[in-house]
Each structure stands twice: as structure tokens, then as C-alpha cells.
Design a protein that fits this description.
By secondary structure, the protein is an alpha+beta fold. Helix content is about 35%, strand content about 25%. It has an 8-stranded mixed β-sheet with strand order 1-7-6-5-2-3-4-8, sandwiched between helices. It is globular. The termini are far apart. About 20% of the residues are buried.
């Protein structure tokens, strides 16, 4: 396995026709999100400047590359999941197809342990969050067995996942959040 720089990671989008992101955790503790998440919890304004470069990248690459994401989530939702649901619409507008799969609907799927990006069924990049989850890294692997496992999981979760616009109006949103 090889750790990827941000540039190497982004290059996958420029050469792929499909980029699929699988997110399996209910909360992340990425440094760049600490203050925006705190503001959201406090009901304070956030100008979302910290997201603009990613959204510009989505707009640039989504014309040539189908960008998909499934978040496997626990219901009732953790506050972090609620926050992501609130801010995901901007990524959708920028060209990313984001869907949600309640964890109880995925109990029969062999979900891997790590989040991933899967590019064209050919390149697997794991999104690892060691320790406290504050410093995620991208790690490329050429393990064919692992690639097949993630591709199978992708196909199953994508088939069941609910598009963002539908999910935010679904019964899953009417549950009392975890505090």
C-alpha cells in the first residue's frame, strides 16, 4: 500500500469515468471541520469558505467523471451526521451524487472496515483515519481481492441507498438525534 499525496489522489478523478466514495463512520474528527461543526452546533453562521476548493474541484471534474458517495448512517443520527446532511446540498449542486443508507438496511452486506474511493473498478484508495480521526490519509492498494470486496459492497449499497433530496424528507430524518 502506498500513501497518496493530495495531487496524486485528485489525479484519479481526472482519468476516471466513475469515482465512488463509501463512508462508514457516523462521526469524523477532521481538523478542518472542527470549527465549522462547532458553529453549526451553536447555531452560528458559517460562510463555508473551508469547502469552496472541494466544491470547485467537484464542478471541474464532474463534467467528465461521475462522482458518487454513499454514507452508511446509524439512525437515529449522530449530531455529526445531521450536520453533514445539512451541508451536503452544496456538494450535490457542485456535481456529486450523495446518498444515504441507514445501517439497519445494510446488515446483510459485507461492509469493509475502512472508507474508500473506488475509481472505475480499477483503482482502490482507502481513506484511513487512524487514532483520533483528525488526520485522514489516502492509501492506494493493488490488492485484487480487496478491490473486488469493495466493488461488491459498492454495488449493494448503491442499489439500496436513498438520494440526498429524498433522504432529507424521509422518515429517517424524523427520529430524535443522538446528543
Amino acid at each position: 500500500m502506498a500513501r497518496l499525496s493530495d495531487q496524486d489522489f485528485q489525479q484519479h478523478f481526472r482519468t476516471a469515468k466513475r469515482a465512488f466514495h463509501l463512508e462508514l463512520k457516523d462521526s469524523y474528527h477532521v481538523n478542518s471541520e472542527t470549527e465549522p461543526f462547532r458553529k453549526w452546533r451553536a447555531g452560528e453562521h458559517d460562510d463555508h469558505a473551508w469547502r469552496r476548493s472541494w466544491q470547485a474541484f467537484l464542478r471541474e471534474t464532474s463534467a467528465e467523471c461521475l462522482i458518487q458517495r454513499v454514507r452508511v448512517v446509524t439512525v437515529p443520527h449522530a449530531p455529526y451526521t445531521r450536520w453533514l446532511l445539512d451541508i451536503a446540498g452544496d456538494n450535490v449542486k457542485a456535481g456529486e451524487d450523495i446518498r444515504y443508507l441507514p445501517r439497519q438496511l445494510a446488515t446483510d452486506i459485507d461492509l469493509p472496515e475502512e472508507d474508500c474511493w473506488l475509481f472505475d473498478d480499477e483503482h482502490l484508495v482507502l481513506s484511513t483515519f487512524p487514532g483520533d480521526g483528525r488526520a485522514g490519509v489516502f492509501v492506494a492498494t493493488d490488492d485484487a481481492h480487496l478491490l473486488r470486496r469493495y466493488a461488491t459492497a459498492r454495488d449493494l449499497v448503491w442499489e439500496r441507498a436513498i438520494p440526498h433530496a429524498e433522504y432529507i424528507h424521509s422518515a429517517y430524518m424524523n427520529t430524535e438525534p443522538i446528543t
